[in-house]
Amino acid sequence: MPALRVFGRRWLIASDDIPIPAGFLAIFRFIWCGLLVGWLISIHGPKECTGAWQYNVAAGGLLGFFLASFALETAMTIIGLRGSIFETSKRRRLPLLIYLDIVAVTGQIAFNAYCTRLLYTEPPQCEVEPGELWQPAQVLKGLVWSTWAVLAGSLLLLALTYNLYPDYKAVESWERRWSAMAHCCFCCISNHEKGRREDLAARLGRIFALMFGHIDMTASDIVVSFALAMTLQKLRRRGSARAARAGSLQMTAAALPGAEPYRAPSPSSSGAGAPLMDGTRTGEGGIGPRFQGASAAPTGVGGGSPGSGAGPSPWSDSEGSDDEGLAAADEEAGLQGQRLRVDAETLQEASHYMSYAFAAYGYLLYLWGKPATGVLELCCGRSCGLAMNMLRPSRGVLPDLRVITNLNREATLQAAGLSTEDLLFVRYEAEKPNVLPYFLALDHAMQTVVLAIRGSLSLDDVVRDLLIEPASLDSWISSGKEWHGVIPEIAMAERNTEASGHAGILEAARATLMDLQESGYLWSTLLGPEATHRGWQLVVTGHSLGAGCAFLVGLYLSQSICPGLKCWAFSPPGGLASASVGASAKAWCTTVVCGKEWIPRLTAQSFDRLRDEMVLAALRCRLPKLAFGWGVLRRRAWTEADLVLPEVPPHARPVLNEYRKSLARRGELEDSFYDHASSFAAPGQVMWLQSVGSAPRKGWRPGRSHEYRAVWIDAEDLSSEGIILSGRMMADHMPDHLLALLRKMARRLQHSHSTAAVDDRAGESVLPHAGGSHDRERGG
Predict the structure, then answer these.
(1) How do beta strands 756-759 and 685-697 pair?
(2) What's the pLDDT tens digit per position in 19-42?
(3) What is the Cα–Cα distance from 561 to 17, expressed in whole angstroms?
(4) Which CATH architecture best describes the domain 344-390+402-570+734-779?
(5) Looking at the chain, which residues constitute the CATH 3.40.50 domain(s)?
(6) Range with the poorest average pLDDT among 137-146, 470-479, 728-737, 752-761
(7) Distance between CA atoms of 425 and 431, rounded to whole angstroms?
(8) Are 473 and 579 in contact (CB under 8 A)?
């Protein structure tokens, strides 16, 4: 970091990445030189080969250029390992060495070509004993063609690291980059979709320029900075744990007769709830969170206590987990009375509707959750329901032999515990533009009509997730709407917009509502005057992207069309809608967040904080990039003093100042974006499945068990905490894990247990067996 600059261009590789390819090439040259010297000696030995003199020039020239490359690449490896990430002055000689190595490689190409011509036109005639391994002609062929292979690999590396759009600050450069990616990923789309593709590329380019166009970072820089920030966060959390445990012991001692009263340490001294880069370190550098009101989570939202008793949780490992530390900090802050536990009935309802959200993913997530038996259950479950559905006439004439469609349908039926008659309608992938896959089903036990929308599972879904521009919700939430009325067009939020939401998800919600209007199933089942199930409740649900779409669909319908509906949003995106909109939905919407998952915490605000943490961690890093990466691979136990300096060093201050200036240069578009995006929060009331510890799980497939408890928190707490960098941030987001956890918590709470534990393969054992029903699960 920053990116390497040679030939007047910024490349997609940093100067401290050079030791990896240079070291590999140096080793190859060293081995190759030894073999070539041995080959030259062998053809001029006692049994000199006929025509050996012709190879003296070709092989000798090749050997000379290889020795030069070996020396240059060894020097590049040594110099590239010098200095920390931003100490580029210690690696300033690298461009000159690269230029010289390119000259040496050019000579290798010329002499290797000459050697190849000689080998196939005038090969050396050598006397070789039968069975002798060293055959000069064959050895030379191996050397020549291995050289061509390495040279081709070097050219491929040059092509991959060549930066077509070197200006990382310009919006146009990001737009062209995304346009090129769109051409590669959507090369087979029809002509009428090209305009939409270019529009998406321009929108994504503007968003990424706004988020990433402030500092020169390569891909390896981002990965290392992320890992560094994660390590520092973990060290801070463990420090908070130790301080909180020490405080608990002092409180216990202070309760003894004659003891001095206990004085709680300040957050700045204990580290509990402090931001990763606290004010004493970021203030001097002049960089801090963009949104100062959310710069710290003083209450330590990231943890919780399994009970009111002091001492470590039995689920914590011997070293002390992050969860234990956060629980202790939470307890010391006196939050036990503020966080209400979730009752068993609510957890039962949550697990009930999470099964629908999981079922919307179809067969891929079903097989992911049950890798051992999923295929057998899909094929043979429900009395061979898959085969029966495929053989049933489609459109009254022919059997339905669409394998993927039938697999998705069967997985939906089995995961949700539905009968074929209760599955009213299914919309599959890519059947309608912008419409997320969803299904409508009847739930007789709860007397509800369930609309379940699928989360992210395709490239289109990822693009939709990335379209985070604020769009206006003013017309979306207006009253007086009718089911058959025109659904408002999507308009970007302006300064006078009162309520706004995620533009990409809002487009999907609008398309889904239009599809529901066209199909007519919801009207004929629930909303129409002659509906077959009039009086039942509508429940909209989904997971991740599907949860965000479900909330916006429910927001539109709840105003006047279906005021009695309920929404269960499982792990929705944090940057979904304005906080005021989410707060107004507390009566009918419940958001469920699991552990340390990152999607519900991801907003423009939390992303800015994360980027600041990563940049500051890289600025203060005292280790070379590869040395830190090697330590991570070896699972080295770091201390903060091992990783970072107390202050931003002088050589990194110019980069810091430029970063600050770039953040300060915001146009009207960026100001409008942040004015609205800074207020986004999770919708409705928030149920948090709080991680309280973990322990190794023994057996023939060892793993870890993780314990959780369910509490109510404010959406503002979740937003202000920011993204927790942890190995659980993606595992906690998986829908099979969440479904298994909710079901186990609901059962344990019925038996007066406040927590529940699930392991890393939770979905495999807790998902319902083929033919299972909700009634059986609810009775369990």
Answers:
(1) unpaired
(2) 999 999 999 999 989 988 887 777
(3) 58
(4) 3-Layer(aba) Sandwich (3.40)
(5) 344-390+402-570+734-779
(6) 752-761
(7) 13
(8) no
